[in-house]
Amino acid sequence: MSQPILLDSHGRQLTYLRLSVTDRCNFRCYYCMPEEGMDFAARQELLSFEEMLQLATVFCRLGVNKIRITGGEPFVRAGITPFLRKLSEVPGLQEITVTSNGSLSQKQILALQEIGIRKINISLDSLDRQRFFQITRRDTFDTVFGSIQQLLTAGFEVKLNCVVAENKNTQDLIPFVELTKTYPLTVRFLEEMPFNGSNSFQVPQWSYREIYAHISAHYPLLQKLESEPSSTSVNYRVPGYAGSFGIIPSFSRTFCGTCNRIRLGATGELRTCLYGPPATNLRDFLRQGASSALLEEEILRAVSKREKDGFAAEASHGTAVHESMSVLGG
């Protein structure tokens, strides 16, 4: 009998796990955390690295072949490097990628190289130091941009994720595209999402349509690039530029029909959609002594109930207050 795979009731196979290793972060971005701060999970509530490895093995046995490490900020958790090294040895796992806020040390960059991790996403919402400070509540722009340059020099495939919002950073759109003129990186512009840990979110004024219209007004000869079927971004290049840019309709959710992602939070909550409630908590099953077979069964059960799209998932949430993105893992 063949091994079961993660196939939802709408025929979509899930092969991509986003694994959050911590809810803590050394930045305080407005779209992720409320200004007054938040209560982080107690250490004993977090999945241990051993538990994460056990769950990653189960997921890969069910057909997951790519894992993205998220947070919070992954590198604020002690022991992350040895964990990544062990994770790279999980059977069936073809690719590990990382999302970071860019506050990386040279030692951490070298460790990623040694492990064989070559793709990294950096959250960067402005190229202006003052706007960067207003968004992150941290005066560390030079550190982040320096890390990006080190990563590029070391041969990493770098993507910059920029959340676009009115009165925050729309004046950075063209400078970001211009960054791709000389740097071989990808900038991805995201619609703002309601995951700031409060109920104060309003529908974003800058949808993917407004973002594209603004950029195309400056660059009328944009070249549309071919993307993978499961890509969340629509990608473009300015002819002759070294890099490219993409637009992610993260609030409009036009890509749900081909989504191949599943999310495991740092405290064990499994989500089949970013906008939906937890489908189950795998940490609790683990700590009750569940076998690998039982974990597989629980994961398959959760996936079988996956909603058609992010709007249906959000409707099933039953609350106006969305959790912080640092809890969800992005």
Automatic annotation (TrEMBL):
Keyword Iron carried by entry: yes
Domain Radical SAM core: 9-225
Alphabetized Gene3D superfamilies for the sequence: Aldolase class I
Keywords recorded for this protein, A-Z: 4Fe-4S, GTP-binding, Iron, Iron-sulfur, Lyase, Metal-binding, Molybdenum cofactor biosynthesis, Nucleotide-binding, S-adenosyl-L-methionine
Cofactor names: [4Fe-4S] cluster
InterPro entries: Aldolase_TIM (IPR013785), Elp3/MiaA/NifB-like_rSAM (IPR006638), MoaA (IPR013483), MoaA-like (IPR040064), MoaA_NifB_PqqE_Fe-S-bd_CS (IPR000385), MoaA_twitch (IPR010505), MoCo_biosynth_MoaA/MoaC (IPR050105), rSAM (IPR007197)
UniProt keyword Transport, yes or no: no
Catalytic activity entry: GTP + AH2 + S-adenosyl-L-methionine = (8S)-3',8-cyclo-7,8-dihydroguanosine 5'-triphosphate + 5'-deoxyadenosine + L-methionine + A + H(+)
One Gene Ontology term of the molecular function aspect: GTP 3',8'-cyclase activity
Top-level taxon of the source organism: Bacteria
Documented EC number(s): 4.1.99.22
Descriptive protein name: GTP 3',8-cyclase
Organism: Rufibacter glacialis
